[in-house]
Every structure is written in structure tokens, then in C-alpha cells.
Design a protein that fits this description.
Helix content: 40-55%
Number of strands: 10
Number of helices: 14
Low-confidence stretches: 1-5, 343-347
Shape: globular
Distance between the termini: 27 Å
Length: 354
């Protein structure tokens, strides 16, 4: 059922964060937006965000919005079906089984080549069966920006739609402790979230859409500082994956503020004009994911994934009720206050009053 009445909504650029199994929340977000007939101009993603972006773009190429919704569901169902046996214990949320905990413990001492000498990657067979990469490269549709990180240089490497391959998508989700790097053109590539989670700049520079929707999985509100060694290790990883996004979002927000200063008669052209016209929107998962143990990112259990999908859909329902009239008209997020200040928590906590 479509929920947009009147003129067609303006096209959106979507920035999709990574987060392993937590990416099922983004599945729900995309599902609800597609159901409402939202037109997607571009998708930028890293890790699980890249998987969602490519599955969505593939489905759009096959059968429009309905095809995208089905492709997303099929992808996450296949991921759940290929989960290693004896990996998790059921529950709400699920927890790692002894075998899963042992594998993670061994990964601290053994390199992926030792831990997985045959280089078995269930995600490869899932993506090969689910995504027609040749069709994706040669058909029109949303622009794609898939982030990877060059392991030797720490540089961001983006793969766009016309050059996207199975290996490039696998590289975007390559956790160095658990998988060997993906080598493309002689460069070893790791998870894209290390360098961009996801990349925002191309959505401004290369895409005509003025509405930018951020779909975040890492908590943006401040969290309690852990005191134990395991908690500190987990928080360190969270910071490593969130910092590139926070830095790029802050830079864009401040650059936009610079373009808007001065006389209203100022002639804006090129990038200045793009920045001045940019409208920010946010669909965050803080209420859903902040309380979950970090290890649940590694547990794509089907019932758990469906619950996260439903929470993503509910998040869109709330945002749609409060802010959908801002699409094409103005920002529903004060990006400068959220990313340019020292404490974005108050901005997010008050979002429903905006």
C-alpha cells in the first residue's frame, strides 16, 4: 500500500550505515520508504549498508519498488539461512553459543588465514545467488557509492554502480579479524566503515537530489563509558566505525553554514549552490539498538532480523507522521547542531518536538 497523496515525493539520497545483523533495521526503513513510493536517487553504503543499498538497487532494476522490497527480504532471508550451525542461542535478543564465543576468542590470536584456511565465506554464495551484478552495472537506476578501505594506505576507495562487482561488495563488509582482505587491482581492501560509514560527500557532489536521508545504526546519543576491559574494547570498535561518519557530517554541515552566511543576494553556483540547497533528514536506530549487546551484530537469526525490520518500519512511520511534509521543502534535522556541536544527544532527544 502506498501512503503518499498528492504530488510524487521528491527523490532522496540515502546514506546507509553498516552494522552487521543490525542492518536489518535499515531493511525495514527501506521497505517502508519503498512502500510509500519514495523515489531513490542515490544510495551510499558501507558494510551492511552496502548490502542493503545493492539489494535495493538490484530489485529496483528487476521490478521497481515491489522488486526492491522483495530483493531486500530475499537477501536477509538467505543470510539467516546461511548462518553457521551452532553459532547462536535463541532468545530476545539471541546470544552467541559456545562455538561462536570460541571462534571470536580464537580470532584474537589467529589470523583469518589460520582460522579459516579454506577462505570459506557464506556471504559470497548468498550475494552471487541474489544479485545480478552485470545487470546492475548496465541498467539505469539510483547512483551507488560502495565504500571500502585500502588496508595498506587507510584510504577510502569507492565503487560506483558502473564498476561494481561481487568482490567489491564483499570487500565493503570485510572485517579484518574474521576474513582475509579482498584484493582488487592489487590492493587489499577491508570494511568500508573504517574510512566512511557511509560516504556522504559523493551524495552532495555527484547527485542532483537535494534531500539527504541519513539512516544510522551506531548510537548518536552519548553512551555510558564502560569500565571493564571487554566493554572498552567494544566501545573502541564503535568509535572507530562511527568517527569517520561524524567527521564528514560535521564538515558538510559547517560547509553548508558557510555558504548560507552573508547577503541573500549572493550568487551561488556549482558546489556552493548544492550545499546551500541541501536538506537534511535523519532516521536513527538509537531507540532500537542502543541497548543491544554488540555481539548481536554477528547473529543474523531470522526472528531477530524480522524484529529489527519491524522496528525500522516503525521508525519510518513516526518520522513520516512528524516530518514527511518537509521533503522537498526544508530540513527536518538541524545538522549543524547535531554534528557541529559538542553534544548531539539533546538534539536527538528533542527530535519529536521539531
Amino acid at each position: 500500500m502506498r501512503h503518499w497523496f498528492g504530488p510524487r515525493p521528491p527523490p532522496l539520497s540515502l546514506a546507509l550505515q553498516g552494522g552487521g545483523a543490525h542492518g536489518a533495521f535499515t531493511w525495514g526503513v527501506l521497505d517502508a520508504l519503498l512502500e510509500r513510493g519514495v523515489q531513490i536517487a542515490a544510495l551510499s553504503g558501507a558494510s551492511a549498508g552496502a548490502m542493503n543499498a545493492v539489494a535495493c538497487a538490484h530489485g529496483l532494476a528487476v521490478n521497481g519498488h515491489d522488486g526492491a522490497r522483495e530483493a531486500l527480504r530475499a537477501f536477509w532471508r538467505a543470510v539467516a539461512d546461511h548462518m553457521p550451525p551452532l553459532w547462536h542461542l535463541p532468545g530476545d535478543p539471541p546470544s552467541l553459543a559456545p562455538a561462536g564465543r570460541a571462534l571470536l576468542a580464537w580470532s584474537r590470536w589467529l589470523a583469518p588465514a589460520q582460522l579459516n584456511p579454506l577462505d570459506v565465506n557464506p556471504l559470497r554464495s548468498v550475494l552471487a545467488a541474489q544479485i545480478d551484478f552485470e545487470r546492475l552495472r548496465t541498467t539505469a537506476g539510483p547512483a551507488l557509492f560502495i565504500a571500502t578501505t585500502e588496508a595498506e594506505s587507510a584510504r577510502l576507495r569507492l565503487f560506483r554502480r558502473d564498476v561494481l562487482t561481487l568482490d567489491a561488495l564483499l570487500a565493503s563488509a570485510c572485517l579484518p579479524a574474521l576474513a582475509r582482505p579482498v584484493v582488487i587491482d592489487g590492493h587489499a581492501l577491508w570494511d568500508g566503515a573504517f574510512s566512511a560509514n557511509p560516504a556522504l560527500w559523493p551524495l552532495v557532489r555527484e547527485v542532483a537530489a537535494d534531500d539527504l536521508m541519513l539512516v544510522t545504526l551506531a548510537p548518536l546519543t552519548p553512551v555510558a563509558l564502560p569500565a571493564d576491559a571487554a566493554g572498552i574494547t567494544a566501545r573502541t570498535l564503535d568509535v572507530a566505525f562511527l568517527a569517520p561518519f561524524m567527521r564528514e557530517a560535521r564538515w558538510l554541515a559547517e560547509a553548508q553554514a558557510d555558504t548560507q552566511r552573508g547577503s541573500w543576494t549572493r550568487l551561488r553556483t556549482g558546489l556552493d549552490r548544492r550545499l546551500a540547497r541541501l536538506r537534511w533528514h535523519l532516521l536513527d536506530a538509537d531507540d532500537t539498538l542502543a541497548h543491544l549487546p554488540g555481539q548481536t551484530r554477528l547473529m543474523p537469526e531470522w526472528e531477530f532480523l524480522q524484529r529489527l525490520r519491524d522496528r525500522g518500519r516503525e521508525r519510518v512511520d513516526r518520522w513520516w507522521h512528524e516530518h514527511h511534509d518537509r521533503l522537498g521543502r526544508g530540513s527536518s534535522l538541524d545538522a549543524l547542531a547535531c554534528f557541529g556541536g559538542d553534544a548531539p544527544g539533546s538534539v536527538l532527544r528533542n527530535r519529536r518536538a521539531d
